[in-house]
Design brief:
heterodimer; A: 294 residues; mainly alpha; 14 helices; 74% helix; B: 272 residues; 13 helices
């Protein structure tokens, strides 16, 4: 009995550093975010807490009536849906090509995955020069094909697509790795059985690969969507949200409201709305997974 | 027929690999070009007169060495701290019986759903209140106890045989002794994974260091680079040299240890 008590005490001792750090620097701030969103916390309250007042849901009302917030939301949703879909498609294509145990496949996997570990600030700067309207490599290549030049980052129609291309390039390797693991986990007997039944390559892909890959699909989709919704660094470095707010994201808006203008109550409301969106996507994942098992 | 199709696949794979590498190779190439030579048409692929002048300027006039050191301090301490904290917590969750274990595990899972950005505004106020604004401690704090890491360790520690731990207890070893001499060696691979993960995440992190470090001498490399790119937007060659220096340490860690990194990514996906 004494050993049981002592392991229990040891467990709590081992857990204490993690729980204190998570409690103080994560749980507490998350709750505080919710509370702050109901106040008019601003630069004066940063200096003296007594300057903050409770304003109810005013911050949320203001958000609903702020066109710029809707612009940020629309931009971010567009980025997440279009960029996320393209990333998934590229990831699946690369995984299908690289899942087999062929010579050099490990080498290709490493190359395809590498952009994912590179510092976002550095690659954003790198892409800014690739996108240069006069001297950029991309406009040079377009010129060879008789197209362009396009002012990718200066034209509000092209700025978000330009950021999407960068994001697909950087992120597809992550999904690729998980898809490869998913593909390799499909039992070979399923393919053999389908082949015996006379299923061609396309039919096997359609009726064996895709259904078996469904849980992987849901997982990668949700991780990608949530990750893409956090868009911040690329527009911060490349466009500062411009031109004409065409690349303003929800997180960039929150950052500017909170840390440039110190309208912390208002920015906290943005954080809460952002959280609700992430929560909704996660809930969708749980539902889709349950449907599979049902 | 079979040989032809596999040849076509290889050709496609090589083309895609070149397209993926092109921006990176171009960045390296431009960083060695003399000022202004990238701004010509057609854009040059390789430096005709290679020079190290931009790297020299970065290290002398722009004092990028200081930011390299700042980034190294933040990333290495975050990696060490997160390994210490999560190895203890993950082991306790996996192997030690205590009241409320399931409840706590559930709470931590729920915590993983919340993105870090939701906490950022109050976290800044809190860090300010603790007097940690503009300190490396302030920059490290959100990385020190990743919940994801706790579960990574827990998953791995589940495979340690209970008999081994019980035998040590019978021999009179203290719980801390068991953790140090049995558990830590047993979960070493996952700790390497976790250390690389945290190191890379901390090195690449931008939003939080941008918020918490206001004094230029404390900037980590990405923050310094972003600031520099505002002032030197026209100096393509200089900025490319800065970008090369920023990604080089990450690649130096990633390439030799990529097996561990990839295992971490896959472990995270199984749990789903």
């Amino acid at each position: 009995m004494t050993t049981e008590r002592s392991t229990s005490r040891a467990a709590w001792l081992f857990l204490t550093p993690a729980l204190v750090l998570i409690g103080v620097f994560f749980v507490l701030p998350v709750i505080a975010s919710l509370l702050l969103s109901f106040t008019d916390f601003d630069i004066y309250a940063v200096a003296d807490l007594r300057n903050a007042r409770i304003v109810g849901v005013k911050n949320y009302g203001d958000l609903l009536h702020a066109p710029i917030f809707w612009t940020a939301l629309r931009n971010t949703a567009f980025f997440a849906v279009v960029g996320g879909t393209l990333t998934m498609a590229a990831a699946l294509a690369a995984a299908l090509a690289l899942a087999a145990r062929r010579p050099f496949n490990g080498f290709f996997r490493t190359i395809y995955f590498t952009p994912f570990v590179l510092t976002v600030v550095a690659i954003a700067i790198m892409w800014r020069y690739l996108y240069h309207p006069r001297y950029g490599l991309l406009n040079y290549l377009l010129g060879l094909a008789g197209l362009g030049p396009i002012d990718f980052l200066g034209d509000p129609h092209w700025s978000m697509p330009a950021i999407i291309v960068l994001a697909v390039w950087r992120n597809f390797g992550y999904g690729m790795l998980i898809f490869i693991a998913g593909l390799q986990a499909i039992p070979a007997q399923l393919y053999e059985a389908a082949q015996l039944d006379g299923a061609g390559a396309w039919a096997r892909f359609r009726h064996v690969t895709l259904p078996m890959l469904r849980p992987t699909f849901v997982f990668v989709g949700v991780i990608t969507a949530i990750g893409f919704f956090q868009l911040f660094t690329e527009p911060y470095v490349l466009t500062q949200g411009g031109p004409l707010k065409s690349t303003l994201s929800v997180m960039l808006y929150m950052y500017e409201e909170g840390f440039r203008w110190w309208r912390i109550g208002h920015a906290a409301a943005v954080a809460v709305v952002f959280f609700l969106i992430v929560l909704f996507v996660t809930w969708l994942q749980l539902r889709l997974q349950r449907e599979r098992t049902a | 027929m079979r040989r032809l199709s596999s040849l076509l696949i290889y050709a496609a794979l090589v083309l895609v690999a070149l397209a993926i590498l092109m921006p990176v190779l171009w960045m390296v190439s431009v960083s060695f070009m003399p000022s202004g030579s990238a701004n010509t048409y057609p854009p040059p692929w390789i430096p005709r007169h290679p020079t190290l002048v931009h790297y020299r300027e970065l290290f002398t006039r722009l004092e990028i060495g200081r930011h390299l050191i700042n980034s190294a301090i933040v990333s290495v301490s975050a990696a060490v701290l997160s390994v210490l904290v999560t190895s203890m917590a993950g082991y306790a969750l996996a192997k030690l019986r205590f009241r409320g274990r399931q409840y706590l595990t559930g709470l931590l899972v729920a915590g993983m759903v919340v993105p870090a950005q939701v906490a950022m505004l109050p976290l800044f106020l809190l860090v300010k209140w603790f007097g940690l604004v503009n300190t490396f401690g302030g920059a490290i704090i959100p990385l020190a106890a990743p919940i994801f890491g706790i579960f990574l360790v827990r998953q791995y520690a589940l495979s340690i045989p209970d008999a081994l731990l019980d035998a040590a207890r019978v021999d009179g070893a203290s719980e801390f002794r068991i953790y140090r001499s049995i558990v830590l060696p047993a979960i070493r691979p996952v700790l390497i994974t976790l250390a690389i993960f945290t190191f890379v995440a901390a090195w690449n992190d931008f939003m939080w260091p941008l918020i918490v470090l206001n004094d230029e001498s404390r900037y980590t490399l990405p923050v310094a680079l972003a600031t520099l790119s505002g002032e030197h937007a026209q100096d393509a060659e200089l900025m490319m040299a800065g970008a090369v220096l920023t990604v080089l340490p990450v690649l130096a860690v990633f390439f030799p240890l990529q097996r561990y990194y990839v295992q971490g990514i896959l472990a995270g996906s199984v749990k789903g």
